[in-house]
Design brief:
Structural class: mainly beta
Mean pLDDT: 76
Shape: extended
Number of strands: 8
Radius of gyration: 18 Å
Helix content: under 10%
Strand content: 15-25%
Low-confidence stretches: 120-126
Largest sheet: 2 strands, antiparallel
Length: 126
């Protein structure tokens, strides 16, 4: 049996968000304590909240949305690269198939869990 590791951050109203992005709003839409038949929450977040994947259309006009990405591109053995420099990241050094165990690569960008804020800014260049 394989070991699975969930790398996602919990989503909550006081979590860090990317500067300029909308915050997290979590409200009760229905509540049994107030006579409703069930409890229902309403969650409003920006698409860059917490752990996420940028779709091609995030930076490229008329690019594919995340709904066009096959789910199997995100599940399986992965290489994790901690990005610790505030300089540009040159993706030419991280080619598909470079790792012997996976074609999936996750980049970790300077999020500080203890201080709940983003510490660094990055520019991706090909």
């Amino acid at each position: 049996m394989e070991n699975w590791i969930d790398i996602s951050l919990p989503i909550h109203p006081s979590m860090a968000i990317w500067p300029g992005n909308p915050g997290v709003e979590l409200d009760s839409a229905q509540c049994m304590q107030h006579g409703d038949v069930c409890n229902v929450s309403q969650l409003k977040i920006g698409t860059h909240t917490g752990t996420h994947v940028d779709a091609i259309n995030h930076f490229i006009k008329n690019g594919a949305g995340i709904d066009a990405a096959p789910l199997d591109h995100f599940i399986g053995p992965a290489r994790v690269v901690a990005v610790e420099s505030e300089r540009a990241i040159h993706l030419s050094g991280y080619r598909r198939g470079q790792s012997t165990h996976s074609n999936i690569c996750y980049l970790c960008f300077g999020f500080n869990r203890e201080e709940h804020e983003y510490k660094k800014s990055f520019i991706l260049k090909r």
